[in-house]
Design a protein that fits this description.
By secondary structure, this protein is of the alpha+beta class. The chain has four helices and eight strands, in the order ααββββαββββα. Keywords: Membrane, Transmembrane, Transmembrane helix.
Length: 247
């Protein structure tokens, strides 16, 4: 039995390629359409501007007008308060000035009343005023006394005056005598000689550890009895026109 050789050419049937599913194309097409619709909606809304609420323009104008009115009222109130403050300060200053003038006139009235004998209680030698003032950059103090006398008495009067000072020294009560604290040329007192009135001036040097609180003024007319009056140190530091605190 003979063997047949294989054929030189072989014919095979050609099969058609499998068809691709169309669902992917539909999905891509739908996505593109959705994107175009979203872009179109965004463009339309962007060109339309913000939504307008009916009546909002009128409300805004009304609020602006009310705000301007309130600002004007506030400015008027602040200005009125400033004017009232200035007027009150000026009135207070005027009253203080008037009080000072009245006190000065009262002091002058008392002074001249004693000179002309205005009342039996003002007869004879009187201590009209006491004033102390510090000497800068030292422990010294200047003292000023004003003595008056009834103008009805025609003769001159003479004598001397001394001042002792009570206070606290090193925690204990102490008295500084005139001879220990006065100037060398006034150890015997501040001399006076006048017919109607005279101002006496003296200087004292107080110890560093001494705190004064009261003055004792002794007036010794020649040939007459010495009289002593007292006054607080605080009152003596006040305006020299204040003479109502001599006791």
């Amino acid at each position: 039995m003979s063997i047949r050789p294989p054929p030189r050419y072989a014919v095979h049937p050609v099969h058609a390629p499998p068809a691709r599913p169309r669902s992917k194309w539909w999905w891509a097409l739908g996505w593109a359409v959705s994107l175009l619709i979203a872009i179109a909606i965004g463009y339309v809304l962007g060109n339309r501007g913000p939504a307008v609420v009916p009546g909002s323009g009128h409300n805004a104008r009304q609020l602006a007008a009310e705000n301007a009115d309130l600002k004007q009222q506030l400015a008027i109130a602040q200005r009125s308060q400033q004017v009232a403050s200035v007027a009150t300060k000026k009135l207070t200053d005027n009253l203080a000035e008037r009080d000072e003038q009245i006190n000065g006139l009262r002091a002058d009235l008392a002074f001249y009343s004693r000179l002309v004998g205005g009342g039996a209680q003002h007869q004879g030698l009187q201590l009209q005023m006491v004033h102390v003032a510090p000497v800068p950059n030292s422990r010294a103090w200047n003292i000023e006394l004003t003595l008056t006398r009834n103008a009805k008495r025609g003769d001159d009067i003479s004598g001397h005056a001394e001042i002792d000072i009570d206070g606290v020294r090193s925690g204990t009560l102490a008295r500084m005598h005139w001879k220990d604290i006065s100037a060398p040329d006034q150890k015997d007192g501040m001399a006076f000689k006048f017919k109607y009135f005279q101002q006496l001036h003296g200087t004292v040097m107080l110890p560093k550890d001494f705190t004064p609180n009261r003055l004792r003024i002794s007036i010794s007319p020649d040939g007459a009895k010495t009289t002593t009056q007292s006054m607080s140190w605080t009152d003596a530091l006040k305006n020299p026109e204040n003479t109502d605190h001599v006791e």
